[in-house]
UniProtKB/TrEMBL annotation:
Pfam families: Lipase_3
Reaction(s) this enzyme catalyzes, per UniProt: a 1,2-diacyl-3-O-[alpha-D-galactosyl-(1->6)-beta-D-galactosyl]-sn-glycerol + H2O = acyl-3-O-[alpha-D-galactosyl-(1->6)-beta-D-galactosyl]-sn-glycerol + a fatty acid + H(+)
PANTHER family: PHOSPHOLIPASE A1-IALPHA2, CHLOROPLASTIC, PHOSPHOLIPASE A1-IBETA2, CHLOROPLASTIC
Family designation: Belongs to the AB hydrolase superfamily. Lipase family.
UniProt keyword annotations, A-Z: Chloroplast, Hydrolase, Lipid degradation, Lipid metabolism, Plastid, Transit peptide
Gene Ontology CC: chloroplast
Organism: Populus deltoides
Protein name (record): Fungal lipase-type domain-containing protein
An example Gene Ontology molecular-function term: phospholipase A1 activity
Compartment(s) of residence: Plastid, Chloroplast
InterPro entries named among the record's database cross-references: AB_hydrolase_fold, Fungal_lipase-type
Chief location: plastid
Record has rRNA-binding as a keyword: no
GO biological process per UniProt: jasmonic acid biosynthetic process; lipid catabolic process
Length: 451
């Protein structure tokens, strides 16, 4: 397996680690960002392809030509970028078009955070600050070539008596569809569903409900072996049942809107793209599985509308049965993760895809109780000593993708976070003169390093 390579962003003061010091991961389908030699090549290519990298002094004619080249090529290879071949040949090194699309979908998620109203004194508290027509302009995205068609709300099935938040649905994202002009650029009509991550207290509690439960989203075929985390499923399926005029579940809202749009644009070349950060990536994956399991994207015996998930800092969602069923249905998942982000290692710190077999040959009897990541993984590596929370920050993820590594800008540290943590624990254990404690501390840190 190739080593993980750090892509630092100088503006956020990251502490870099050498590739040899990064903890290994056994995640299936794991891939890496380009090394020094390929990064420089990719960066030079990106300057002629990514709009944000175009030199301001270029003439209008040159800009038009570059834009035309980018458009025609992206329109030609959009199926590969959406994962029809599981991103073979596009991730190592990271292809400029794929990088561009990952950033674009990440910015759609950023809009969710920027538009979410957390002011308790506001009339729009726990909803979106802006109307659907003005959302992108108000959050500074200008005109991305998409029209928002639906706002999505989720109702956490959790009550906290001491909280001041009303027990109602929270705005978690939106559905948008590409305009006619964007269709020409992208090569297809793109339906985007975007979810923000955890913000409110009930959502945090739902995240820690780490028991597995059968998904049973298709009542005609419940598939009891396909299990998902109960908190995520609750957010996806709960509604305001106490009020006959209350909100429908997040699931009902989404399936209804997706079905409407698929029917409206029937006969066109279509794609369904889902993106989310943290908890939002879990909702995106549940929806992708739901759409495929119900066959909403099925046009014929061997003709399906591509369903692709762009996951940023996402946790595990289901068990191995869920993972295998997603793969069988053709759901494509591209996971962008930071190796120092603890959320990407949850739930299932101990019972996961890495611990289901003994010696690579013997299946443990609790195989169906093991959590498993779904899809292909793109690995980032960043950490900020002054702001440790940045390891899970979506802005840090996107900033790093926008600024590929350049050798003369990298500051390498000889120790990574896990090694420093182990030394700290061992030092304290040494002071107590307890050999068993020292051994336990070392083994514990080594375990988390390999999760």
């Amino acid at each position: 397996m190739a080593s993980k390579i750090l892509m630092p962003n100088p503006s956020v003061n990251h502490v870099a680690y050498s590739a040899s010091m990064v903890p290994r991961s056994r995640s299936i389908g794991q891939v890496c960002l380009p090394n020094k030699s390929t990064a420089e090549t990719t960066a030079s290519i990106s300057q002629s392809l990514v709009a944000s990298s175009i030199t301001p002094t270029m003439s209008t004619k040159t800009l038009d030509k570059t834009s035309s080249t980018r458009t025609s090529t992206l329109a030609h290879m959009w199926r590969e970028v959406q994962g029809c071949n599981n991103w073979a040949g596009l991730v190592e090194p990271l292809h400029p078009f794929l990088r561009q699309e990952i950033i674009r979908y990440g910015e759609f998620v950023t809009a969710c955070y920027q538009a979410f109203d957390l002011d308790p004194n506001s009339k729009r508290y726990l909803t979106c600050k802006y109307g659907k027509k003005n959302l992108f302009r108000e959050v500074g995205m200008g005109n991305p070539g998409y029209e928002v068609t639906k706002y999505i709300y989720a109702t956490p099935d959790v009550n906290i008596p001491i909280q001041n938040e009303p027990p109602c649905g929270r705005w978690v994202g939106y559905v948008a569809v590409s305009s006619d002009d964007a269709v020409r650029r992208l090569g297809r009509r793109d339906i985007v569903i975007t979810f923000r991550g955890t913000v409110t207290n009930p959502e945090w509690i739902a995240n820690f409900m780490s028991s597995l439960t059968p998904a049973k989203l298709d009542h005609n075929n419940p598939r009891p072996d396909v299990k998902v985390e109960s908190g995520f499923l609750s957010l996806y399926t709960s509604n305001e049942s106490d009020d006959k005029f209350g909100l429908k579940s997040c699931r009902e809202q989404l399936l209804s809107e997706v079905s409407r749009l698929l029917n409206r644009y029937k006969g066109e070349e279509l794609s369904i793209s889902l993106s989310g950060h943290s908890m939002g990536s879990s909702l995106a994956l549940l929806l992708a599985y739901d759409i495929a399991e119900l066959g909403l994207n099925r046009l014929g015996p061997n003709l399906d509308i591509p369903v692709t998930v762009f996951s940023f800092g996402g946790p595990r969602v289901g068990n191995l049965g869920f993972k295998e069923r997603c793969e069988e249905l053709g759901v494509r998942v591209l996971r962008i993760v930071n190796v120092n982000d603890p959320i990407t290692k949850l739930p299932g710190v101990f019972l996961n895809e890495n611990f289901r077999v003994l010696g690579g040959r013997y299946e443990f009897p609790w195989r169906c109780s093991c959590y498993a990541h779904v899809g292909v993984e793109i690995v980032l590596d960043f950490f900020n000593m002054q702001n440790p929370s940045c390891v899970h920050d979506l802005g840090s993820y996107i900033s790093l993708l926008k600024c590929p590594k350049k050798g003369d800008q990298v500051r390498k540290d000889e120790q990574n976070i896990f090694i420093r943590a182990r030394e700290s624990i061992l030092s304290r254990a040494q002071n107590t003169n307890m050999e068993p404690l020292r051994n336990a501390a070392s083994n514990l840190v080594n375990l988390f390093q390999n999760v």
